[in-house]
Design brief:
Blueprint (H helix, E strand, L loop, with lengths): L1 E5 L4 H12 L3 E6 L16 E4 L7 H6 L4 E4 L11 H21 L4 E7 L13 H21 L2 E7 L1 E3 L8 H10 L4 E4 L5 E2 L1 E3 H13 L8 E6 L5 E2 H11 L5 E4 L17 H4 L9 H16 L1
Parallel strand pairs: 1-2, 1-4, 2-3, 4-5, 5-6, 6-11, 7-10, 8-13
Antiparallel strand pairs: 9-12
């Protein structure tokens, strides 16, 4: 298949682009001219890429003919005091323009990466509220576009993905790298929050499984929850990472407060995606073991 991607320089997107290439697909990447390509440098010459701040957004469609699918993984979390207008532009206006162009050029499949923050049970969470609002709104736009244009909009609602090459500011990477480097101490909340931690390889394989069966999907809007189906406490995750790294870092539980309206439990109902033949391969122990091995090899 000929696949157009956003977010390929990011954590999820880079893993997904590499896997798509290895599976024999043609990969076309939309990025910015100033994007840091360190995650994809080893295969950058094997993909087509366009700097969207220098070219019209429809140029890849004009130059490559029939594009079978768009996979949208780019996102703006709105962290570090980011403006609401920037989150709105990145998470709603940009993908909506891309969806509109893809529909014009008869691209049948648009796969959108959604978040577990965008669930009825988590919508009161104050942290990243602009982000989750923008993701929820784009999902609704995608649903309407699919119904109006007889195209396929697939919404993939991801739980808490982790693995190598994520941003060091992300909780899972920060914990693993701190333990590997034997940081003096880690100040933490009580750690009772539960998350559905899914290893990056399992998440990527979910995208491929859905892509591979897309021809058999009859309804124009489809949503799949992607996780392990089980939740583990933050404390359990940290303690496993601490043990596997043989770390001397001291863990101080309960020294930090929970965020306002903290999500205390989240896990995916994966019955629908299991029915198409996908299942997670990594439990939290095996996933962390693989992640730690990679981090020690390349970042320590």
């Amino acid at each position: 298949m000929k696949i157009l991607m956003t977010g390929a320089t990011g954590f999820l997107g880079s893993h997904l682009a590499s896997t798509l290439l290895n599976a024999g697909h043609t990969v076309i990447i939309l990025k910015r001219s100033f994007s840091n390509t360190w995650r994809i440098n080893e295969f950058l010459n094997d993909v087509f890429f366009y700097d969207i701040d220098h070219v019209d957004l429809d140029q890849p469609f004009r130059e490559h003919g029939d594009i079978n699918a768009v996979i949208h993984t780019a996102t703006n979390y709105g962290r570090k005091g980011g403006k609401a207008t920037e989150v709105f532009e990145s998470n709603l206006v940009f993908p909506l323009r891309l969806l509109e162009i893809a529909t014009t050029y008869n691209t049948r499949i648009f796969m959108n990466t959604d978040t577990f923050f965008n669930k009825d049970s988590t919508r009161n969470y104050e942290y990243l509220n602009f982000y989750s609002l923008s993701k929820r709104q784009f999902e609704e736009w995608g649903r309407q576009f699919a119904l109006s244009n007889n195209s396929l909009f697939i919404n993939i609602k991801l739980e808490h993905i982790y693995g190598p090459n994520d941003d060091p500011s992300k909780f899972t990477t920060y914990i693993v790298q701190s333990c590997i480097n034997n940081m003096d101490k880690l100040e933490l909340t009580p750690g009772e929050q539960k998350r559905d931690f899914i290893y990056i390889d399992d998440a990527v394989n979910a995208f491929l499984k859905i892509l591979n069966i897309s021809d058999s999907i009859k309804e124009y809007f489809q949503e799949y929850n992607v996780g392990t189906g089980n939740s583990e406490s933050i404390r359990h995750f940290v303690e496993i990472a601490h043990s596997l790294t043989h770390s001397s870092t001291k863990l101080f539980w309960g020294t930090l407060p929970y965020r306002e309206n903290e999500i205390m439990e989240s896990h995916a109902d994966i019955s629908k995606i299991i029915n198409i033949g996908w299942s997670p391969k990594y439990d939290i122990f095996e996933g962390l073991k693989k992640m730690i091995g990679y981090e020690k090899k390349y970042f320590v």
